[in-house]
Amino acid sequence: QSVLTQPPSVSAAPGQKVTISCSGSSSNIMSNYVSWYQQLPETAPKLLIYENNKRPSGIPDRFSGSKSGTSATLDITGLQTGDEADYYCGTWDSSLRGGVFGGGTKVTVL
Amino acid sequence: EVQLLESGGGLVQPGGSLRLSCAATGFAFTSYAMTWVRQAPGKGLEWVSSCGKTGNKYYADSVKGRFTISRDISRTTLYLQIDSLRVEDTALYYCAKGGVGESGLDSWGLGTLVTVSS
């Protein structure tokens, strides 16, 4: 059971939008920065979003992040077949004094 | 270019020990936190341990007392000493640059596989 809760899967057609939610608590998401990671099959994770809504260099603006209270959201617009991957949210938990990840969301392009 | 190269994984019996290494190049090693994340076969990411840039160390409850994170600044290498290994420690262990609650884990190695089995 992960500290952060994500839906196991989301899907949409090419060109459409998907939204991945990440639900936490006052000791983690509300109090700390959230980051998002993309893991393509058989590869290491890659940072997509940091500090809630910032994109590293090279990440297209089709990927956007937001945070409100104890929840965070990753939006992917203009969905492409290459976006099929597992997506994870992560943050620090001030009560646990450790990092926490969501259980991951598998994105399927129909 | 940032490069992180893990090594030291292998097959070990329950109760055994391993020392994982992560050789880091391409950035100012002392200016960043460093983190170990593991992924059991077919499972999600699990944060294991972090070493802050000032040397503070943090551990997941599941590994506290058994795992020890350290770093050698002169060798720009991060280590994870893992003792009293359990079957449930079987996973691919990734080294990552940064802290998950700070500016994120912005670079990752390819991982080193630890298999605990009798």
Question: What this model shows, in words?
Answer:
The complex is a heterodimer of chains A (110) and B (118). Chain A is mostly beta strands. Chain A is 0% helix and 45% strand. Chain A is globular. In chain A, 38% of the residues are buried. The model of chain A has no long low-confidence stretch (mean pLDDT 97). Helix content of chain B is 0%, strand content 53%. Chain B has strands spanning 3-7, 10-12, 18-25, 34-39, 45-51, 57-59, 67-72, 77-82, 91-99, 104-108, 112-116. Chain B is mostly beta strands and 118 residues long. The radius of gyration of chain B is 13 Å and the shape is globular. The termini of chain B are far apart. Chain B contains no helices and 11 strands. Chain A binds chain B through residues 2, 32-33, 35, 37, 39, 44-47, 49-51, 56, 86, 88, 90-93, 96-104, and chain B through 35, 37, 44-47, 50, 58-61, 94, 99-111.
From the alpha carbons, calculate the radius of gyration of chain B and give it in angstroms. Answer: 13 Å
Q: What order do the SSEs of chain A take from the amino end to the carboxyl end, as H and E? A: EEEEEEEEE
Shape of chain B: globular
| Overall average residue pLDDT of chain B | 97
Distance between the termini of chain A: 28 Å
Count the E strands of chain B: 11
Can you give the helix content of chain B as a percent range?
Answer: under 10%
What structural category do the secondary elements of chain A indicate? mainly beta
Question: Count the strands of chain A?
Answer: 9
In short:
The complex is a heterodimer of chains A (110) and B (118). Chain A is an all-beta fold and 110 residues long.
Q: What's the topology here?
A:
The complex is a heterodimer of chains A (110) and B (118).
Chain A: E1 9-12, E2 18-23, E3 35-39, E4 46-49, E5 63-68, E6 71-76, E7 85-93, E8 98-101, E9 105-109
Parallel strand pairs in A: 1-9
Antiparallel strand pairs in A: 2-6, 3-4, 3-7, 5-6, 7-8, 7-9
Chain B: E1 3-7, E2 10-12, E3 18-25, E4 34-39, E5 45-51, E6 57-59, E7 67-72, E8 77-82, E9 91-99, E10 104-108, E11 112-116
Parallel strand pairs in B: 2-11
Antiparallel strand pairs in B: 1-3, 3-8, 4-5, 4-9, 5-6, 7-8, 9-10, 9-11
